[in-house]
Amino acid sequence: MLVKNLSHTIPLITGSDSYKGPIYPTPIQLREVKQSHIQFMIKNDIIEPVSSNPSKST
């Protein structure tokens, strides 16, 4: 039987602490991750930046 090492951490609970459930990222942290991911994709030519004020071609 194969057991894989999982990369998550389990919070340690001491006598004075109470378990408050999993810690979720805040919206600001999610926005930072999203922005860094977008910058990575633009830098590596995965996506192209879109102009916020595109000129109309006729």
UniProtKB/TrEMBL annotation:
* SUPFAM superfamilies associated with the record: DNA/RNA polymerases
Name of protein = Uncharacterized protein
